[in-house]
Amino acid sequence: MIPWPARSRPRWTRWAAAHVPQRGLYLGSTWTPSRGFGIFCSTAPSRAASFATHHRRGVGAGAQEAGDAVARIRNIGIVAHIDAGKTTTTERMLFYSGVTKRVGDVDSGTTTTDFMKEEADRGITIQSAAVSLQWKSCDINLIDTPGHVDFTVEVERAMRVVDGVVALFDASAGVQAQSYTVLQQSRKFQVPLLAFVNKMDKYNADFQMSVASIRDKLQVEPLLLQLPLHGEDGSFAGVVDVLAQTACRFGGQNGSEVQRTNLDEASGADGQRASSPSGGTGAVAHELPHVVRAMRSARHDVVAQLTAVDDTLSEQFIEQLDATDGDEAEAERRLSTWALQAAVRRCVVHPPHGRPPLLPVLCGASRRDQGVQPLLDAITCYLPSPADRHPTGLTRDGIPVALPPASAARTVSTVALAFKVTHAVHPLKGQRLPLVFLRVYSGMITPRAQLANHSRGQTEVVEKLYVMHANQPVEVPCLAAGQIGAAFLTHTYTGDTLFAHPSQHLLQAKARVKKGEVKEEVYTLEGIDAPPAVISFSIEAATRNQVELLKDALAELTREDPSLRVSENEQGTMVVSGMGELHLEIIMSRLSNEYQVKCRLLRAIIEYRETLRTTQAVEKHVGFFNELPYAECSLEMRPLLEDGERCGPNDHCRFRMDNAFVASYLAGYQQQQQQQQRGGMSSGGRANDVRNAKEELRVISTTFQSAVDACMRLGPLAGLPMHGVEVVLTSFRKTAGSVLQGKSLSHVARSVLLDMLRATRKDDLALLEPMMEVEVHLSEPTYIGNVVSSLNEHKALTVDVQEDGRSVKAIVAMRNTLHYTMELRKAVKGHANLFMKLHHYQVLEEKTVISRILKNLGITE
Ligand SMILES: Nc1nc2c(ncn2[C@@H]2O[C@H](COP(=O)(O)OP(=O)(O)OP(=O)(O)O)[C@@H](O)[C@H]2O)c(=O)[nH]1
Ligand SMILES: [Mg+2]
């Protein structure tokens, strides 16, 4: 649920079209729980007024205006490793664009986007939060995401709906573990990127090292659009804009005044002299010649990188070469800032094929109010609008199809994706209801619209529409293509697609088929995947009265957070599974603070598994149905263990048919039919026979696969789920009837599999334990020894200190990682970040541990 802070009660703002520009008055109406609706006016273009103007562009606007409005939208995500400064940068963006009147601070818990109590208390982001601002005639919708690995689903769903990403890096650390992960997520959705090397003010900041690590670790070609500018004492003093050939310094209240010095004209052709200010306030006496030289060299590199991939810029460069009699330096100088910026935009929005993508790199220090305005300029200038993106949809058969370009025209079908759910008190109904965040891809959603949820086969009626400003909803008259907003919806979950078709015209998209392109109906958009949980605990309500409250609260929380799972085991104990200790710690805190539920986590549940050590076979087993022999089959159960001791996390139990068996089954079918033909019986043709045989094989395969799924849930050794087993069908023959029936065959498949499992000797089985990959990153490398010894104390299987000397990777049994986060923090005095994920399952050999597990499961040897 959205935890409304005590100091700012929910204020639902409803905007009438009431902007009176001549007199500078902005009118609106608000709803507060205590006072109801009221009209107010302001002399400043407040945040809500700007929303109103922005959203009015969609309503009743002509096609041209609506198209322009889409082109002016920038839906942007800010991603990075934990603590890189995403929230601090967002806070500066809100301030410079006039949305906030003061700059909030992460360390004192006063930022706009970290509004949850848990976020303010810990100084970290837990949930992604959306804010909107206007910058240079663009409407920027910004999603500030968390950097901690436990909240990775928040990044995943933000990446799914944004059109561009700003990736932040800590200038003293370069690419860190989670920066790599979040960038992989953005690549998955092919979202164009900008890089911002933050914290340039730190004593150990190293711009060149950061750029090198971006190049090496992310396999991109950095495009240095800025260089850091240092003061006489060596401290960070601003940025050099390589394309515009200016030096930018930031002064005034919180760096809100940008002073630009032209480096090109004033420095003269020899690059020796100083410069005079151009634009901005405050004059800068001179720039050092080495700054000018560095800028020229960087500009030369940028031109070379861009002309290598962009034909338009190459042509412009050749024209300049002709005009300057082949003087390359002069031709480069004559390329306008605008031409270079346009080329950067083309390369970012449509990355060149067959070579590493170009990644524009900017730098700054948000906490020192340096470099954020140029970053906003770069967002508007280089990142795509919804009109530049070509999202894909899926047909009813799951075939990917390209959606038509984003259009808000009334004749176009409306399609939107629900990417996040929170709970809030409905302003009119007074009840807590799911508030669903939507990204509109096509058409327009208006109040009272009826939307079909194809993902769930339900229909929803939208009442009112909102744009969220962190935890403050602002009512808007519509949500048009390209926009991000929210509505109270009952049946919609994260990842669901909502549709409305004008006059029953289905949304058509182009699908590529062998003979060209055909129009296909778009049925859903691609959903949002939740990562598998890595840690489970049993949870118990403090009193009997609290049990139902706990269940209801967990139901709400799982709806909000798809990476949280709640289940009940065979003993009726409730089990919560999540992405790590911090994730579950936050859930417990929310249960107590938001839901006032008293409960506690009991034991950690280690997800042990069972597996097979040696191949088991059954020959010509006759399966019965209704006491009559139905089919005769031969099966093998084969272990998927590597080196007899480990298997991957995705080596789930599976079924397949032996290739030789499939070939002989098809051949046998044909032979049988030929014999029947010779005996004078009609078979309907050879092609038909093969089709029937293939259909039978399909039925056999799906039936055996579901039998494997069902039978392997309880292993024969300790009743634990089985993992890493492959069941192979080596022969099959029907002994009764002519048509294979799924139900009868399923009975046979299950009984033969259960017989095989029961007959397996204990020595041929083993317990598997989950092994975690633990990654520790240190901000202070002196603690590396403490980390290595603490990992060894926790019986790590392997410990590798990484090349950078400040991170360690280790493989540790999950049972030894419980509470490790807290212990590690103490050992290194808070200078470490720890990330864990399931690495593999390992055969458990320690007799004492095995007997303890069996005892805990109520099995005595
Ligand atoms: N020295 C320095 N510190 C900074 C800068 N930007 C942010 N910080 C500090 O870095 C810490 C983390 O900042 P956040 O803005 O919370 O970082 P984040 O990336 O949002 O962190 P998560 O959301 O928790 O992943 C805070 O203590 C900030 O004050 C900067 O430019 N220079
Ligand atoms: Mg943050």
Automatic annotation (TrEMBL):
GO terms for biological process: mitochondrial translation; ribosome disassembly. The keyword RNA-binding does not apply. Keywords: Elongation factor, GTP-binding, Nucleotide-binding, Protein biosynthesis. Residues 71-387 form the Tr-type G domain. The keyword Kinase does not apply. PROSITE patterns: G_TR_1, G_TR_2. It holds the Pfam family EFG_III. InterPro entries: EFG_II, EFG_III, EFG_III/V, EFG_V-like, G_TR_CS, P-loop_NTPase, Ribsml_uS5_D2-typ_fold_subgr, Small_GTP-bd. One of its GO terms (cellular component) is mitochondrion. One of its GO terms (molecular function) is GTP binding. SMART domains: EFG_C (SM00838). PANTHER family: RIBOSOME-RELEASING FACTOR 2, MITOCHONDRIAL, TRANSLATION ELONGATION FACTOR G-RELATED. This is Putative mitochondrial Mitochondrial elongation factor G. It comes from Leptomonas pyrrhocoris (Firebug parasite).
